[in-house]
């Protein structure tokens, strides 16, 4: 992969180019994230970026220690607590936090583990999760507004994350872990990205963009041209995720 911190900064710049010209009306419109406006979605991204640039990130404890807590519930509570900010203030606050994040993560000493949701992550893996989340919420913002948000080679990070965390997704669903090989076509329509052992009994092939959207719960497997072959391949497509529960 290319440098994940550079790609994270590029993802922020692409989203910033979308947000900058939005009108007040567009900020107040419903996003594709249920119950959230465009402003709410950006506020959520802001709040999560601020965690990365806070002392908490080095606390060594997961963000969600309680078994009954969910990330969706925590995110909803945090957004509700600060809802009502002006679009200009939300955008300025997001920019301040987001554009600091690549440097914050890049500066971490080797071996650093950072607190995140239910586990700790390396700075590179946390950067990957931030690409995945910003890309997913960019879909929530741009699709309802009818705005373009082209897929890029940065989706390789998102696809890697989805494949890498399949054991976690299987465990959440109560399914025995099984090796899965993915052969995905990059957004350029030519490059092939592969993840896992080609000899694995389960294989997923098709569009990386569709695979990432399934992992982000923006598409169902049935809405895509992805092909699942072998034991547990269909299960993998059903449970795959690019995010923490």
UniProtKB/TrEMBL annotation:
Residues 8-141 form the Mycothiol-dependent maleylpyruvate isomerase metal-binding domain. InterPro entries: DinB/YfiT-like, Maleyloyr_isom, MDMPI_metal-binding. It comes from the Bacteria. This is TIGR03084 family metal-binding protein. It comes from Nonomuraea rosea.
């Amino acid at each position: 992969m290319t440098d994940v911190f550079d790609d994270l900064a590029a993802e922020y710049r692409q989203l910033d180019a979308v947000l900058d010209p939005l009108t007040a009306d567009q900020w107040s419109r419903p996003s594709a994230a249920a119950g959230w406006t465009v402003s709410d979605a950006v506020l959520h991204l802001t709040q999560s970026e601020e965690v990365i640039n806070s002392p908490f990130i080095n606390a060594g404890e997961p963000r969600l220690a309680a078994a009954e807590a969910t990330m969706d519930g925590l995110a909803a509570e945090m957004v509700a607590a600060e809802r009502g900010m002006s679009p200009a203030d939300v955008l300025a606050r997001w920019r301040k936090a987001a554009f600091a994040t690549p440097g914050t993560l890049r500066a971490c000493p080797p071996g650093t583990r950072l607190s995140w949701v239910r586990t700790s992550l390396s700075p590179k893996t946390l950067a990957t999760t931030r690409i995945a989340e910003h890309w997913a919420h960019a879909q929530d913002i741009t699709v309802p507004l009818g705005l373009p948000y082209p897929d890029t080679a940065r989706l390789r990070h998102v696809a890697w994350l989805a494949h890498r965390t399949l054991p976690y997704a299987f465990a959440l669903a109560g399914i025995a872990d099984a090796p899965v090989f993915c052969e995905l076509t990059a957004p350029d329509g030519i490059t092939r990205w592969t993840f896992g052992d080609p000899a694995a009994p389960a294989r997923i092939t098709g569009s990386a963009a569709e695979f990432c959207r399934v992992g982000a719960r923006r598409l169902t497997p049935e809405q895509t041209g992805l092909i699942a072959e072998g034991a547990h391949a269909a299960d993998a497509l059903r449970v795959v995720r690019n995010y923490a529960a």
